[in-house]
Amino acid sequence: MLLAVENLHVSYGGIRALKGISFEVEEGKIVALIGANGAGKSTTLRTICGLVRAQSGRIEYKGTVVNKVPPYKIVGMGISMVPEGRRVFTRLTVLENLEMGAYSRGSSQEAKESLANVFKRFPRLQERKSQLAGTLSGGEQQMLAMGRALMSRPQLLLMDEPSMGLAPMLVEEIFSIIREINNSGTTILLVEQNAHMALSVAGSAYVLETGEIALSGPAAEMADNPEVRKCYLGE
Ligand SMILES: Nc1ncnc2c1ncn2[C@@H]1O[C@H](COP(=O)(O)OP(=O)(O)O)[C@@H](O)[C@H]1O
Ligand SMILES: [Mg+2]
């Protein structure tokens, strides 16, 4: 297993955000974590990245327990995150934003190669490389956030609600890019409120409800599950 999360508990002061969740991400797959606002999806990703500390439980990545590893070392181990709301540096150019993503990559030769790969995947970013990130459209900012995360050539990409706030056509485009990234060998843990899109690209899925895993299974089965259809697919 590339990533195994076991009985993870996370609190913010008195608020119990995660109440002992367990799940696994197999290498090469797209795994979806779906759930309503406040369910604990972002907390899960932030804890995996080392940005939030768990009270208890374990996060095992490639057989190593990484609970107490600092965020910059997590990136070095091959995990990178596309945060909720993109979080691009609006007053920096597209190129400068991408260079920030290469921060932990050793040589400048490697950074150059990473940049060439990102521009190949996102030609629109190349066309706009000198533009300030704050002047990009929402969809372009999402691409920039994805490109920035790919600069460190992650084996495991964590994506927090990539479809949030985007028009339906752009959502389709972003999800087809997610498929391509996965096809070229990157494992993806995808967090979404848009269960419909998430289940259409994922191999397996987990439903998170107020800090607990309520349901899990192959994505196709989940999409047929009456409870999922009622609560998450708007039927
Ligand atoms: N920095 C924080 N401080 C206090 N409570 C937080 C913080 N971040 C999240 N929470 C709380 O933790 C719970 C889970 O939040 P979050 O992981 O952001 O959910 P989701 O991403 O599924 O919307 C919510 O009750 C939220 O209010
Ligand atoms: Mg969130």
What does this 3D model show about the protein?
The protein is an alpha/beta fold. The chain folds into 2 domains: 3-78 and 154-232, Rossmann fold (3-Layer(aba) Sandwich), CATH 3.40.50; 87-151, no CATH class. It is built from 10 helices and 10 strands. A 6-stranded mixed sheet has the order 6-7-8-3-9-10, with helices on both faces. Helix 7 (168-183) links the parallel strand 7 and strand 8. Helix 3 (94-101) packs parallel to helix 6 (138-150). It is globular. The two termini are 34 Å apart. The model has no long low-confidence stretch (mean pLDDT 93). The structure holds adenosine-5'-diphosphate (ADP) and magnesium ion (MG). Magnesium ion binds next to helix 1.
Summarize this entry quickly.
With about 240 residues, the chain is α/β, with parallel strands linked by helices.
Please name the defining characteristics of this protein:
about 240 residues, alpha/beta, Rossmann fold, 2 domains, 6-stranded mixed beta sheet, 4-stranded antiparallel beta sheet, 10 helices, 10 strands, globular, binds adenosine-5'-diphosphate, binds magnesium ion, branched-chain amino acid transmembrane transporter activity
Record the SSE blueprint.
Blueprint: E1 3-12, E2 15-25, E3 30-34, H1 41-48, E4 56-61, E5 64-65, H2 71-76, E6 79-82, H3 94-101, H4 108-121, H5 123-127, H6 138-150, E7 156-160, H7 168-183, E8 187-192, H8 195-201, E9 204-209, E10 212-218, H9 219-224, H10 226-232
Parallel strand pairs: 3-8, 3-9, 6-7, 7-8
Antiparallel strand pairs: 1-2, 1-4, 4-5, 9-10
Bound molecules: adenosine-5'-diphosphate and magnesium ion.
